[in-house]
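ok, trying the design again with the full structure, not the truncated one.
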């Protein structure tokens, strides 16, 4: 007597057992039992599908595209701050936008040198932009009160203590926060005609801002 393969023997045994069980309890007739046995045998021979999970694509932020007027090679602003300057020109109020745009043209494109110091330079910027200025916050160098960061907006003309240079009085044009919690901001600053240098965009500590003048039209 030939020996059947083990898999065939087990399949026949399972089929016979299922048919016998169904007939014994009278749940279905013999014809239905045979059909059920055939279905079980077919299911046992079908391969199991193995669908691998695909993780959703990660959305990546597109790199900042600078406008044409900021596409030059400048030595008076660090390139990493150009997007902040671009944002200041496009997302501010009309008066602030005029001031920031005019200051950028004078500093980066024309490299303007004027007679006087930081006050004279910013006064020239505001005049050329065709705006006036309103005093929003007023204190004193030594006594304050000093402004909160939330009071400062793009295009504001600020007076503050220059902690990076002997704690002297200084003024500059606010462009935007580099790190608001640490009071670090990008400021347009003018050293004066004796330096024979255009205004520069630098990061300053604004922990002690004692006067804010805001452009208006």
């Amino acid at each position: 007597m030939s020996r059947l393969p083990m898999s065939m023997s087990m399949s026949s045994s399972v089929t016979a057992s299922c048919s016998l069980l169904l007939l014994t309890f009278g749940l279905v007739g013999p014809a239905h039992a045979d059909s059920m046995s055939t279905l079980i045998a077919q299911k046992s021979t079908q391969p199991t599908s193995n669908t691998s999970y695909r993780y959703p694509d990660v959305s990546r932020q597109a790199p900042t595209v600078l406008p044409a007027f900021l596409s030059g090679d400048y030595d008076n602003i660090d390139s990493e701050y150009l997007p902040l300057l671009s944002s200041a020109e496009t997302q501010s109020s009309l008066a602030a936008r005029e001031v920031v745009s005019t200051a950028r043209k004078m500093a980066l494109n024309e490299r303007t040198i004027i007679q006087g110091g930081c006050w004279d330079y910013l006064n020239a910027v505001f005049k050329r932009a065709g705006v006036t200025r309103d005093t929003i916050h007023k204190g004193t160098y030594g006594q304050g009160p000093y402004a909160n960061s939330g009071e400062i907006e793009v295009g504001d003309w600020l007076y503050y203590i220059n902690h990076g240079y002997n704690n002297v009085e200084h003024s500059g044009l606010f462009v935007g926060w580099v790190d608001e919690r640490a009071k670090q901001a990008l400021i347009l600053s003018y050293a004066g005609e004796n330096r024979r240098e255009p205004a520069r965009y630098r990061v300053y500590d604004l922990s002690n801002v004692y006067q804010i003048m805001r452009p208006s039209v």
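Keeping the full-length input from now on. Residues 23 and 30 are 7 Å apart (CA to CA).
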